[in-house]
Each structure stands twice: as C-alpha cells, then as structure tokens.
Design a protein that fits this description.
By secondary structure, this protein is mostly beta strands. The chain has a single domain, classed as Thrombin, subunit H (Beta Barrel). It has no helices and 7 strands. The radius of gyration is 11 Å and the shape is globular. It starts with a strand and ends with a strand.
Length: 73
C-alpha cells in the first residue's frame, strides 16, 4: 500500500494483477492494470510506492520489472 499526496490510498492486488485506488474515507476511485506482460499489464504485482511527483512505481514481480505509472491520468 502507498499514499499519494492527495491522501488517496493505492493498494496492490497480487492475485488479481491490478492496483486499486481509494479515497481517504475508503471509497473506490479507480483500478489499474490487467493480467499480462505488456506495458501497463501486471503479473503478480508485489509492492507499490508513490514518489514526490505522484508517480506510481509498481514492483511487477513475475514480469521481473518495476513499472512507473501516472497517478493522475
């Protein structure tokens, strides 16, 4: 899990191959990702961090990479 500068929570879902974004109150906002090997697709994402520029970095474990995604797109 990671928090963005606006207080939203980004949750990594390892088994569902996606990320979810929630308001500080817990309301669902968005989902990123789908199973696969292409850019933007995930294969067992293991961790997530949000940097000071609100870029989301995802440890995409079984694709052996870190993907960078825009939080506000």
């Amino acid at each position: 899990m990671a928090f963005a500068s606006d207080g939203t929570l980004i949750v990594c879902e390892y088994g569902n191959q996606r990320l979810q974004r929630f308001t500080p109150e817990g309301k669902w906002i968005a989902t990123w990702g789908a199973p696969g090997f292409q850019p933007g697709q995930l294969y067992q994402p293991w961790g997530v961090v949000v940097d000071s520029q609100d870029r989301v970095h995802v440890l995409d474990s079984n694709n052996h990479r870190v993907q960078r995604l825009a939080l506000f797109s």
